Amino acid sequence: MAIVTEALIRDYAARDGLGLAEWVRSGAVSAAELVETAITVIDRLNPQLNAVTRKAYDIGRDLAARAPAGAPFAGVPFLMKDLASQWQDVPASWSCAYFRDLPAGGDSELTRRIKRAGLAPLGRSNVPEIGWCISTEPKLYGRTNNPWREGVTPGGSSGGSASAVAARMVPLAEATDGAGSIRVPASNCGLVGLKPSRGRITFAPDAVDVWYGGVYSLCVSRTVRDTAAYLDAVAGGTPGDPYTPQAPAEGWAAAARQPAKGLRIGLVTRAPDGGPVHPEVLSAVHGTARLLEGLGHAVEEHELDFDALRAWSVYTDMAAVQTAGMFAALEPQVGRPVTPADVAPVVWAAIERGRSIGGIRHADDIEALRRFGRVLVGQLLPFDAVLTPALTQPPRPFGQWDMTMTDYDAYNALWSDAVFMFPFNLSGLPAVSLPMHWTLDGLPVGVQLVGRTGDEATLLRLATQLETAQPWIDRRPPVCAGT
Questions:
Q1: What are 377-395's pLDDT values in tens digits?
Q2: CA-CA distance, 217 to 195, in Å (whole number)?
Q3: Catalytic residue positions?
Q4: 2 pLDDT tier (thresholds 50, 70, 90)
Q5: Domain ranges across the chain
Q6: Could you tell me the end-to-end alpha-carbon distance of the chain, in angstroms, rounded to an integer?
Q7: Does domain 7-469 sit in CATH 3.40.50.1220?
Q8: How far is CA 201 from the centre of its chain?
Q9: What's the rounded Cα separation, in Å, for the pair 121 and 75?
Q10: What DSSP string describes 188-209?
């Protein structure tokens, strides 16, 4: 077994995923040494952060040993999110007692692509129960801490992944997004979080469509180039998938390296629900707008003109129907019906709401969501990209979102922090959170760039330009490997 030294940990923590793979290819370090270093870091920091809830070290060791030599992330340590992704021999519990003993089937197509890219998953990262929270504090496993500040949420639902990447346990980790769950934790933890276009990543073979195109998969990372290379590795549909966005012929990693010149960028600072936006968030957005103007882009103020409160109400009712359907579909595998004792109170409220909505109303809700999406897409067509806040507030203390609530609507009303997030789930547009600002007391605040349908390439070019102009890679939280 490889000997892990403090010098090796420092060098490991200083590199992103592609940098680690290049290090292995140079012969200066082996994939086995990378994995053992990651394991050492996880075991050292996880007692403070609780980011990893299910360890699979031996599986990761084996995958690293067999990683294709020419793969972009050959031998690079990784974490799978404990939600939805099928990973043979490593079940996903969704941080839900009802699903804790579900067997793990074979790999999903996404997991197969992750392995082909050379990534070596070492375990699963913590999530809120069934993912329906923008914090990560499930009853089953306990809260995941933000490495930037004790008592502050890392976000959710990909909070475990984001905490682990920010603390440099691994350079990138799986994330999914149904109402901001990639971008929220990216913003709260100072990371890059791209929600790709609708249909960009297949859900085969276990599902065809999730939440009518409202749920997306990708990763959180520390660099734009890692996100672009990961998108190259995992993107693509399978025959029969309902959405097929176009992809750049040269790939996203190559597109991200191309210069972004003279773009027309919309600037949105007013929350579409009319709610408050924190001064630190406004400072982040205005500072980024000035930087973009200095880089030669035209920035124009714009407002999102749609009924955000009505859209959120319809979206959460749709999600409730889908939640009730998911529990019903998995009941044969669990072997008994779900009961209130099996789930958090707000999850039970979602199941009951979903069961109460009839087919005609549900069909009308889907049509309404698609109309909202069409309006949003049309409003943003004049722009090459649109700059908005990611969250309306800096990272919150724990307890802001209480899954012991029994009133489904009252709970969802607390999600106003993410009012800039969910519109791009229902519209299918790509959106990325970038770590462009830190508060005076040291907490990260992301900004969001939104692109046209299928145009992650422009977002990645802009993100690369911003990363070069205002680098963030050397910013480290107090809880971090190699410090």
A1: 999 999 999 999 999 999 9
A2: 7
A3: 81, 157, 181
A4: confident
A5: 7-469
A6: 24
A7: no
A8: 13
A9: 10
A10: HHT-EEEE--TTSB--TTT-S-
